[in-house]
């Protein structure tokens, strides 16, 4: 099996490359330099030259404040990007794995969202990602659209300084009081754990089952607010921090976000697959960060 990984140096993409290679799967890693997904002709040319059995795309324009200011660019990448990939995958009869977001929901529900719950996006990023989800099934027979959320991974931390855990640890080192939103509930998800489950879902014995393709919710298990997530980070790192809960209304942002975006994993569980709890994933991330070696649930179990 040959797998093309798009966004190969991102948080999720780099963990996918590492996990797939560890499973002995041939990978063709593609960075933004190699392929711009909003360019249909380039997507055709690059993927037709590789002829992969599976295309996994982690590429997205997901700076939510920027998406609000640039709706056309947001739709070019997040809606037309997956459309372009689905068309070429359809022609090559390749399996397409595309990632979407928990932000497609409005957050008014009090129980985990299932794949059949009605989306109600609150911002441009979420609308464009929802459009991207809808584009995939038109052109591609074999696909997984995976909604996930609250991602953090070692590459993001090291390469971009761009995930919540790294932001919290940096703030703790500054010894100033830290205020974190306590009325937005989600499930933080370590990209190493998500990559491990994706490596399972693309196996022919799993995805080849009748009716297995389609839309899935995949995050870690459990739920917490951003404040509770921060508290756990400092507890595990044994850091004494002046941490204060605040309401989302006190934290100025030009973008509306769902107050509750926990996703049900029951459909994933019916495939015989499961994700670990978010606290376990966080402990693994912190250990990986300290050791400089990313780890996954399976790697630890062996
Ligand atoms: N991060 C989260 O909390 C979160 C939550 C819900 C859903 N998701 C979804 O999960 C997926 C992976 O997220 P992530 O956090 O791993 O993202 P990430 O670390 O930013 O990685 C995205 C990768 O895609 C590349 N890329 C961006 N725009 C591209 C384009 N137009 N064409 C080709 N490559 C492009 C980026 O390269 P450059 O950096 O060089 O541009 C980067 O390598 C995305 O689809 C995202 O929408 C993420």
Can you characterise this structure?
The protein has 302 residues and is α/β, with parallel strands linked by helices. It contains 13 helices and 12 strands. The strands form 4 sheets. Strands 2-1-3-4-5-10 form a 6-stranded parallel β-sheet, with helices on both faces. The chain has a two-stranded parallel sheet with strand order 6-9. Helix 2 packs parallel to helix 4 (71-92) and helix 4 (71-92) runs parallel beside helix 5. 44% of the residues are buried. The site of NADP nicotinamide-adenine-dinucleotide phosphate (NAP) has 28 residues, from helix 1, helix 4 and strand 4.
Write a concise synopsis of the structure shown.
This protein is 44% helix and 16% strand.
Q: What is the terminal separation in angstroms?
A: 24 Å
Overall radius of gyration: 19 Å
Strand order within the widest sheet? 2-1-3-4-5-10
Percentage beta strand:
15-25%
Mean pLDDT, all residues:
93
Query: Strand count, sense and closure of the main sheet?
Result: 6 strands, parallel
Number of alpha- plus pi-helical segments: 13
Bound molecules: NADP nicotinamide-adenine-dinucleotide phosphate
Shape: globular
Helix content: 40-55%
Number of strands: 12
Extract low-pLDDT stretches. Answer: 298-302
Order of helices and strands: EHEHEHHEHEEHHEEEHHEEHEHHH
Q: What structural class should be given to the helix and strand makeup? A: alpha/beta
How are the SSEs ordered, and which strands pair?
Blueprint: E1 2-6, H1 11-22, E2 26-30, H2 40-50, E3 54-57, H3 64-69, H4 71-92, E4 95-101, H5 124-139, E5 143-148, E6 151-152, H6 154-160, H7 164-173, E7 178-181, E8 185-186, E9 189-190, H8 191-201, H9 204-207, E10 214-217, E11 224-225, H10 226-236, E12 243-246, H11 266-270, H12 278-291, H13 297-301
Helix pairs in contact: 1-6, 1-8, 2-4, 4-5
